[in-house]
Write a structure and sequence with these properties.
5 helices, 3 domains, three-stranded antiparallel beta sheet, seven-stranded antiparallel beta sheet, single chain, 222 residues, alpha+beta, Umud Fragment, subunit A, 22% strand
Length: 222
């Protein structure tokens, strides 16, 4: 009985105007909106949350060092999203940038021995891209391509069993269903990779930015 009397005495607030109305009212007397019943205790708790939030905001604004740092992070985040979004559209791939996590394409100053596999099959390597390879910590710029445009010697990015892999195309052929099959190999690796379907190819490497990939490697702890 006491609980019913308490509920009957609780004012009803308009969701638009936050104006109190009689406990028995169903619609706001000012705007006609449907009313909601909110206990004074709950409203008080919510106001405390609001006060805490705005108090923290004022403290951040007053703390110039923290404010400048958070502003810098915000600008950095906006720039990153803008650049990545632009590259995705321009290069037609969801992965336009990729850090190098291994030395499987590192020539270690020797640009002769990796060519032997191709020259043994009578394939000239003089027009191959990225003839100097790249090392762990470099950053790769990747462009999405139609698998039919990929040629032997191109450096491609594909989905492997352990994530994205960046290796040079060693052989290309078609299966009985006329589906393209690619076999790749890291220039520094002794053996070729397991053949992959064209659907696994993410894109082709078109440029290398030395050392810039170390930031991503450090961030991920790889």
């Amino acid at each position: 009985m006491r609980e019913e009397e308490t509920q009957a005495s609780v004012p009803v607030y308009c969701p638009r105007r936050e104006a109190p109305n009689p406990p028995s009212a169903e619609f706001c007397g000012q705007c006609g909106s449907a009313l909601r019943r909110v206990r004074g205790r709950r409203r008080g708790a919510w106001r405390k949350v609001e006060a805490t939030f705005f108090s923290a905001g004022r403290w951040i604004v007053r703390n110039e060092v923290l404010y400048e740092f958070l502003s810098f992070l915000l600008v950095l985040g906006v720039l990153y999203l803008g650049i990545m979004g632009g590259l995705m559209v321009l290069l037609m791939t969801d992965s336009p940038l990729r850090s190098v996590y291994s030395d499987s394409m590192n020539h270690h100053g020797d640009n002769r021995w990796w060519r032997m596999e191709f020259e043994r099959r009578g394939i000239s390597t003089s027009n191959f891209p990225l003839q100097d390879g790249f090392a762990k910590g470099d950053l790769l710029l990747i462009r999405g391509v139609d698998p039919a445009e990929i040629r032997v010697g191109d450096v491609v990015v594909y989905e492997g069993s352990r994530g994205l892999i960046v290796h040079r195309v060693l052989k290309i052929w078609s299966d009985e269903g006329e589906n393209l099959i690619f076999q790749t190999k890291g220039d520094a690796n002794p053996h070729a990779d397991t053949p992959i379907q064209a659907e696994a190819v993410v894109g082709k490497v078109i440029a290398v930015i030395p050392k810039l990939g170390w930031l991503s490697i450090w961030w991920r702890g790889a």
